[in-house]
Amino acid sequence: MTPALAVARSLNAARYRVSVASAARRPITGYSKSVIETLRYPDPTEDRSAFLAWFERHTRQHHYDLVIPVTERSLLPLSESREQLQHVKIALPSTESLALALNKNATFKLAEELGVSTPRSFYLHDLADLKSLPSNLTWPMVIKPSQTLSGSDSGYTRRDVSYANNLESLRAQLEACLEHSPVILQTYFHGQGAGIELIARSGEILYAFQHVRLHEVPLTGGGSSLRASTEIAPELLEAAKKLMSAARWTGVAMVEFKWNSDDRSYCLMEINGRLWGSLPLATAAGADFPSMLVDLALTGDVPQYPPYRRGVVCRNLARDLMWHEMVLRSKSGHTTTIPTGRAIAKDLMEVFSSHHYFDVQKLSDPLPGLVDIARLARHYALRVAGLWTEHWFFLRQQLLWRNGTIREKIRGSRSILFICYGNINRSVVAEAAMSALQPSADTRKIRSAGFHEQTGRPADPRMVAVAARHNIALKSNSSAYVSAELIKESDLIFVMEKRHFDQLTMIYPDTAARTFLLGTASYNRADSVEILDPYNQTSEIYESCFLRIQKAVIAVSAALPWTKNDA
């Protein structure tokens, strides 16, 4: 909600009385002295109808000169319900303009028509469209859902950009994405994230601002945690002018690009048709877009505003800590370039510069910043505690193998149950591999189940193919749920991850003493203690997962009184 905080601070300085509303119980903006009241509404991502009912009721009972939707999850339902909300003035672009920005298919097709540089794009509506792709695709490819948010009265679902490094990974990800919306497949363009932020009237840009992203979260590209105001690149401004003019845009927007300042090349990434996440940078640099938006909405014009300051740097403290964590854990690759230690140190030294600002922390309005720091401290304290708990859990699981406790339980078992999330990959492989080792004379029940409530699903076809290459048949599998009856009948349970253990013991507390991590059966330092879900990953990950489970199952079966002659 940092854009909302920037809006509140800006409009309060302009002598407006500001109320803030959020789905969160205690939004950070609510702690600002710029706000006269904090309201809470039903989350539109969970219940669109309840949100709209609340909004209509509240705005009929209380007068506001202007309502400014800050996030897409509030902007979208309000835009879709304009007819029933004509009693209140809402800062929204026209329906047609907004639809153009929200639908990436429409955005990129328009850009191509206007001669705005875009990545090479392919528009896919179903898996059959894969056949029309050229054979010379360059990897990685970027997978963009045509719409970030989509939904119905019950709420909205968010889908983010992802990357595919080969055809198999691409197919797997498209299977999931195309269930919800068409997809744009694009070549990856190497460049620095840059944005032209603007306010326009009927397609004419009245004021423009440019920033570049210094740190992005995630590292592959996303929202910025550290960014700087820069001179406007004429190439980017011209592209933004073409798009805004064609869209007849009225209101604020950010046109996002990837930009190479060395050769002046660029590619359009998207149009953000609302106030953007890095808004605190613009206001810190003197580009007062919130006040401009109010002027435009209430008077139809934007008066003369002073030019913004170049070289201003603004940091989102919470996100930038996350960025530093990611840098420490990651390596440079196709979509990420890890900065040098010197570059990181230089960025950190900016904190002591007079042109450095924080999104939330501000001396003249200290409480939001203090609350933000307190929340960060609590978050990291809980993480440290969680890591210690996890460490001791894994250590105890390994000790139970080493001291023979689990082996004794295996020998005394009459029914063994393997559990994962969906019961279409890991647990079904474990069941099939164990059953293949079981002698015909052994009466032990070997079964599997999952937490996914939909039963009767077949095994993942990709895992079926991997298992078949190792002479393990999965085709007859039909997924089962971890029912109370099944749990009661199982005197030994193996799970794949700690969260499965936690979930199972929360539902059935009496299972704690007979539930163990399968991965510890054959654990060595080269392996993870947990066996992670391969779903929608590459064929190498499916193969690795299968072999890891098979190795663990062999270790489990070795504790049983089975001999080669019995099998």
Question: Features of this protein?
Answer:
567 residues; D-amino Acid Aminotransferase, Chain A, domain 1; Rossmann fold; 7-stranded mixed sheet; 18 helices; 38% helix; 20% strand; disordered C terminus
Blueprint of the fold:
Blueprint: H1 2-13, E1 18-22, E2 35-40, H2 48-61, H3 72-80, H4 95-102, H5 104-114, E3 121-124, E4 141-145, E5 149-152, E6 155-158, E7 162-164, H6 167-177, E8 183-187, E9 192-201, E10 204-217, E11 223-230, H7 234-247, E12 251-260, E13 265-272, H8 279-284, H9 289-299, E14 313-315, H10 317-329, H11 341-349, E15 356-358, H12 366-402, H13 405-411, E16 415-420, H14 426-437, E17 445-450, H15 461-469, H16 484-489, E18 492-495, H17 498-507, E19 515-517, H18 539-557
Helix pairs in contact: 14-18, 15-18
List how many beta strands DSSP finds.
19
**Rg from C-alpha positions?**
28 Å
Q: What is the CATH class designation of the domain at 404-557?
A: Alpha Beta
In CATH, what is the homologous superfamily of the domain at 404-557? Response regulator
Give a brief rundown of this model.
The chain has helices at residues 2-13, 48-61, 72-80, 95-102, 104-114, 167-177, 234-247, 279-284, 289-299, 317-329, 341-349, 366-402, 405-411, 426-437, 461-469, 484-489, 498-507, 539-557, and strands at residues 18-22, 35-40, 121-124, 141-145, 149-152, 155-158, 162-164, 183-187, 192-201, 204-217, 223-230, 251-260, 265-272, 313-315, 356-358, 415-420, 445-450, 492-495, 515-517. The protein has 567 residues and is α/β, with parallel strands linked by helices.
